[in-house]
Amino acid sequence: MEPPIEISYSDVGGWTIVELYGEVDVYTVPMIKQYMIERLADGHRRFIIDLRGVAFIDSMGLGVLVGVLKRVLTVHGELKLVITDANTKQLFALTGLRHVFPIYDSVYQARRTS
């Protein structure tokens, strides 16, 4: 059985690119939260969370992203999202979160936009 979420990161041009693959839901939120807390503890401050590999996101998933954003902002960091899935973009629009997060179509675009 495959894990419900795979998380990896790389550092590119001063940004920590966090790639998520799988589902962002009530089951995977604790893993995502812990992963991001560890990256912050390691001194990372500028994040791009790449959600292109995410097949599903629920309200708990949205909540963990908001929580991560709050933690990043408390250390004067930045957080951007990469979303290409139309349904996920619609979810962010319907919940008003598109006004909370800068959302881009690619990691390259997110890195290049201030």
TrEMBL record:
Residues 5-114 form the STAS domain. Pfam families: STAS. It comes from the Bacteria. NCBIfam families: ant_ant_sig. Belongs to the anti-sigma-factor antagonist family. This is Anti-sigma factor antagonist. It comes from Streptomyces thinghirensis.
